[in-house]
Amino acid sequence: MATDMMAGMPGHDASGVEGPDEHFAVRVVARLLAALGQAMLFATVNQDHTRPQPRMDPRAAAEAVTGLSMAVYHTPPGDDLVTVAGEIVGWTRSTLEVFRDQLSVHAWSSCPCEESHGQDETDAAVLRAIRADLLLLPDPATRTLQAGLG
Ligand SMILES: [Zn+2]
């Protein structure tokens, strides 16, 4: 299991959000992976920006990519539902939330060159996509409620 592998990684800590396993369609996981890729790309090209907070945790982003990919790998052929560990979902959410927050105040841009050549439209489209992607993830408030009731 991916989670077993990562639990043994040096530097691994319990900063991830604990929670129950979640289930996603394969194509939803692919979309989340695409979003994580963009999040890491934007974090990289905007790393010297004057708005350092909220800061993306590159380890959480990397763990999310590995965890989601391994979850797809472990899904039996023919199954459409991918089982993803709660902490992987948490790292995915926290990474995409930082991405959304930096985009929503125009702190991060697809091209932070300070010239305007159409990147505002691109950034707005990416922000719409990320907001939609976040809706694919379970609401942590609901999850907490469920955990409390369970
Ligand atoms: Zn530019």
3D structure, described in words:
The radius of gyration is 16 Å and the shape is elongated. By secondary structure, it is mostly helical. It is 59% helix and 5% strand. A two-stranded antiparallel ribbon has the order 1-2. Mean pLDDT is 86; it is low at 6-14. The protein has one domain (19-140). α2 (26-45) runs antiparallel to α3 (58-73) and α2 crosses α4. It contains six helices and two strands; from the N terminus they run αβααβααα. It binds zinc ion. The site of zinc ion (ZN) has 5 residues, from loops. Zinc ion binds at residues 111, 113, 115, 117, 119.
Annotate the secondary structure layout.
Elements: H1 2-7, E1 22-25, H2 26-45, H3 58-73, E2 81-84, H4 86-104, H5 119-135, H6 140-149
Antiparallel strand pairs: 1-2
Helix pairs in contact: 2-3, 2-4, 3-4, 4-5
The chain binds zinc ion.
Summarize the structure.
The chain is mainly α and 150 residues long.
In sequence order, what are the helices and strands, one letter per element?
A: HEHHEHHH
The helical percent reads 55-70%
Largest pleated sheet? 2 strands, antiparallel
Mean pLDDT: 86
Features:
binds zinc ion, 150 residues, 5% strand, 6 helices, mainly alpha
